[in-house]
Amino acid sequence: MEIKSSRIIIGVLSLAFAILFQSVHAEIINIPSDYRSFDNAINAAERGDTILVHPGTYVENVDFVGKEIILGSLYIITGDTTYVDSTIIEGEGDGTVVSIIDVEGANTALVGFTILNGDAELGGGVKCINSRPTIRRCKITENTGGGLNSTDSRTTLIKCNIINNSVRRWNESGVQCFRGFININNCIVSGNGRRHDDQLGGGILISESDDSEITNCIVNNNNAGTGGGIFIDRSNVYIENTLVRYNYSTNHGGGIHCYSYDSILRNCIINENTADGVGGGICFTNSTATVQQCKIQLNRSRSGGGILCSSSSIFLLESNISGNEVTEDGAGISCEEASSTTFRRCIISINDGMKGGGVFCSRRSESNIFKCTISNNSAHYGGSIYCEYASTSNIINSILLNNSNEEVYFSWENESNNIILQYSDIRNGEDGIEANDNGEVQWGDGNINADPMFVHAENGDFRLNNGSPCIDAGIEHGDEYFGEAPDMGAIEFCNDGVIDSFISISPESICLLLAYPNPFNSTTTINFYLPRSGIVKLDLYDILGHRVRELTPDRWFEQGEHRVALDGEGLSSGVYVLKLNRKAQYVNLVR
């Protein structure tokens, strides 16, 4: 006979528990001491109760039956993550493992379980419909039909691992969100999906959603037909501090594919993704987006190795697009079908393709390149920029240098093209532009043909050395700067070679500078510049947001340049985040 536990007054809760539970009168029901099965425990529970599950493997299909309750392992009262691995809900291949359906309250939670071996359409592991659950510290793995489905819900995932879930349908994924909202924070989404042309979003699929978020996540080794890592469809999504890596698509968008998308990517790394079609790193279609302080590197595809924009309006700010490869057009970025792309303070380097090593513009597209460095790219035609089918490039305060073959190339056939250059450093000057009598070159004021004196361009260090002819050689155009006028190129020179990195400068702000070398093996040096004296705190975090090292405590620094050495001893290989007074920058540690 099962004995129900007596009702108790909860006066003091552990921190982890208090975050999730806000009622002062509630019952704690224990499994298996009070009830042996989830069904019986949930049937006995009332709104606000907590069901505490002790370690073991439970072969059940769990249904919250519309109740606003907390279901958790001993992790919620101890914070011990070993309980996640030792408290298992096993679906045994028969339906969804955990169902949270028609739960009205916002204090519904699933915490600290391994959830595996479910088999159901649209959510083999967890299914949330018309509910507002928080799912924390769960491992959702080896399910069929995708790991988690959220439909018409407001679902929050925190510190979950959604790994190695398989799919059968085109709209199943590691994490699926249809309508409603999803917040995915500090999660790992890995090894999900399948290599099939019809498959959308191997890792994450978000469709018809407003204001969803993906923050501090790793999305890697997922597979799909379109959007190997992430597929976003008619949704507004904010993606920040997220690594999208090693994903694959048989069609488009190896890392991310965005369709009718109006959102922001900030402080993300999109690298080493592959698409058999277009958009190795990111593919934007009919979208509006801002990409800020991102690194889009080492991606591969047929066209648009780093980014492909089709019928889209994209703003790229303070980002690095480098090391991408294509077999056809636009190794760095391809702008097609009347797209409008604005680059500001970006570095586009070491990309390789057939046409447009840095930027490819086609079919009435427009590229606005303001205060950028385009260098060391290679293509058969147009090492920096290739234009065709009535496309236009507008270049101000930028450096186009050491790209092969010519810097700019116009297609010799079809509609004519246009390029406008002002206050920029172009290798070989006007002779570096091959217009093929098929367009207009508007050579404006302030252009030069000179060695910009990069610190070490071969290693990707495009800082300007003292004495560079590009220093103070630009024109005011909306960017803050040191000195008498803006510099040409993405990286502003200041104070004896100190530079700002991809952090916006204001008179009262701190400039967190590029760690160099980065990636690094054993040690690297972090530079920062203070426009005025003040208190500075510099910390190193891992990709999941855990602080792993305090580099400087809160202390007073004088105005000017400062350098801090980072010793990699004791750190594993991976991606880390530097935070200087809460401003973030990624560094790669390679050992």
**How many DSSP-defined strands?**
67
Separation of the first and last Cα atoms: 59 Å
> What structural category arises from helix and sheet content?
mainly beta
Count every helix, treating DSSP H or I runs of 4 or more residues as helices: 4
Radius of gyration: 26 Å
Low-confidence stretches: 1-24, 496-509, 584-591
Largest sheet: 17 strands, parallel
Q: Which whole number gives the mean pLDDT?
A: 88
What does the overall shape look like? globular
Tell me roughly what share of residues is in helical segments. under 10%
Beta-strand residue percentage: over 45%
Summarize the structure.
This protein is mostly beta strands. Among the domains are: 302-491; 506-589, Immunoglobulin-like (Sandwich), CATH 2.60.40. The chain starts with 7 loop residues before the first strand and ends with a strand.
Features:
4% helix, mainly beta, 591 residues, 15-stranded parallel sheet, Immunoglobulin-like
